[in-house]
Write a structure and sequence with these properties.
The protein is mostly helical. It folds into two domains: 1-51, no CATH class; 74-452, no CATH class. It is built from four helices and two strands. It has helices spanning 53-168, 171-247, 250-342, 348-488, and strands spanning 23-24, 33-34. The chain has a two-stranded antiparallel sheet. Helix 3 packs antiparallel against helix 4. It is rod-shaped, with a radius of gyration of 62 Å. The chain starts with 22 loop residues before the first strand and ends with a helix.
């Protein structure tokens, strides 16, 4: 831009004449030009202030350098922001990969724990089966030992009774004893058949108990499998909901979030109700198993009482047989005494021998009674020891059953905890997805804002350049006008 400032003054240079071109004077500065008019009678001096084009070019170059520096700074800032966004996205991707790897490790660990628990449960079932077989073998051995002891006692008693009958009776007494022995054999056979039926009944009850335990175990496994399937269904439902949420718009997303919160609350309530019902079912199952165990103990006690009653009946039968033998002996002795009274004189020596024989017989009876009492005491002690062993075994089995129940309950609690952790992780993943989505939208908004800002800057630069061009054109036009005016002057 140039300015035109005319000034009227007297000529200060005596050597200036008409027709001499204009000269610069160092007295007025580099921007003052002396212009002389052709009218020599009244010379005038015009001082014109001209702004040189070199300074304008220097200013324009400085402005262009500033613009280039601003553009370079903007490019560096955008590159730094893009690098920061890339690093953040890379960190987010690595964190997602680490979470996926952690989830895979957790799944593998849970699968290994489930396999170990299955192997432990299988070993426990095998151990319980072996223990049941061992108990059955011990029961069979005790039954065989009892039958052998009874047979030995009965054989010894039968031999003694046979010897006595053979010593004091004749062919008729032997015939009567044979009939009595037949009846006793039939009764013993009936007793043996009844014992076999009892053993078969007990074995059938044991089989029914084993089947019931197996059914209870299968039902527990089915419940555990149902819980796992339900958890898998929940996971699939969460994945489907997440896919549907991605497909929805922003408005539908908010509505879906509210609906999902309501659905999760309802599902949590249903799950709490189901867990409460399952806990009540487990308590009922524990009560049922305890009642079943008590019923088994009552059956064992009833069987023991039955055996004791049968033993008492056998003892009563033995006492009756002994009384019958004593009665027979008394009749025989009475007959012998009558015969001895009639033939006392002739058979004095025979009576003395018979008296000695009676003494010997009484001594034998005392010895037999003492032996039977000792055998009964020993058998009672053995039976008491067996009862104690059976009680200890029942307590051990009960403790083992309670431990298995605690393990099953612990596994179920672990499954519930893992399901809750999975739900929490799913919620955390959803929050992370929402955060990433918000971050992406914010980055997009930032990028759009930067583009808009760059476009505004370009528009501003274009406007400034247009204004400068217009101003330069005006300045040129004014300079041309000034030149034309100067030429006219």
């Amino acid at each position: 831009m140039s300015s035109f400032k005319p000034s009227m003054s007297e000529p200060k240079s005596p050597g200036s004449y008409c027709g001499v071109p204009a000269q610069r004077s160092s007295q007025w500065g580099p921007e003052m030009v002396l212009v002389k008019l052709e009218d020599c009678s009244h010379p005038l001096e015009l001082n014109v202030i001209v702004k040189e084009e070199e300074e304008e070019r220097g200013i324009k170059e400085e402005e262009e350098e500033e613009r280039a520096f601003t553009e370079e700074q903007r490019a560096v800032t955008e590159e730094a922001e893009q690098r920061a966004f890339t690093e953040e996205q890379r960190a987010v991707t690595e964190e997602a990969k680490e979470r996926a790897f952690t989830e895979e490790q957790r799944t593998f660990k849970e699968e290994a724990e489930e396999r170990a628990f299955t192997e432990e449960q299988r070993a426990f079932t095998e151990e319980q089966r072996a223990f049941t077989e061992e108990q059955r073998a011990v029961t069979e051995e005790q039954r065989a030992f009892k039958e052998e002891a009874e047979e030995r006692a009965f054989t010894a008693e039968q031999r003694a009774f046979t010897e006595e009958q053979r010593a004091f009776t004749e062919e008729a007494e032997e015939r009567a004893f044979t009939e009595e022995q037949r009846a006793f054999t039939e009764e013993q056979r009936a007793f043996t058949e009844e014992a076999e039926e009892r053993a078969f009944t007990e074995e059938a009850e044991e089989r029914a108990f084993t089947e019931e335990q197996r059914a209870v175990t299968e039902e527990a496994e089915e419940r555990a499998f149902t819980a796992e399937q339900r958890a898998f269904t929940e996971e699939q439902r969460a994945v489907t909901e997440e896919a549907e949420e991605r497909a929805f718009t922003a408005e539908q997303r908010a509505f879906t979030e509210e609906q999902r919160a309501f659905t999760e609350e309802a599902e949590e309530r249903a799950f709490s109700e189901e867990q409460r019902a399952f806990t009540e079912e487990q308590i009922a199952f524990t009560e049922e198993q305890r009642a079943f165990t008590e019923e088994a103990e009552e059956r064992a006690f009833t069987a023991e009482q039955r055996a004791f009653i049968e033993e008492a009946e056998e003892r009563a039968f033995t006492e009756e047989q002994r009384a019958f033998t004593e009665e027979q002996r008394a009749v025989t002795e009475e007959a012998e005494e009558r015969a001895f009274t009639e033939e006392q004189r002739a058979f004095t020596e025979e009576a003395e021998e018979r008296a000695f024989t009676e003494e010997q017989r009484a001594f034998t009876e005392e010895q037999r009674a003492f032996t039977e009492e000792a055998e009964e005491r020993a058998f009672t002690e053995e039976q008491r020891a067996f009862t104690e062993e059976q009680r200890a075994f029942t307590e051990e089995q009960r403790a083992f059953t309670e431990e298995a129940e605690e393990r099953a309950f612990t596994e179920e609690q672990r499954a519930v905890t893992e399901e809750a952790e999975e739900r929490a992780f799913t919620a955390e993943q959803r929050a992370f997805t929402e955060e990433q989505r918000a971050f992406t939208e914010e980055a997009e908004e930032r990028a759009f804002t930067e583009e808009q800002r760059a476009f505004t800057e370009e528009q501003r630069a274009f406007t400034e350049e247009a204004e400068e061009r217009a101003f330069t054109a005006e300045q040129r036009a004014f300079t041309e006008e000034q030149r034309a005016f100067t030429a006219e002057l």
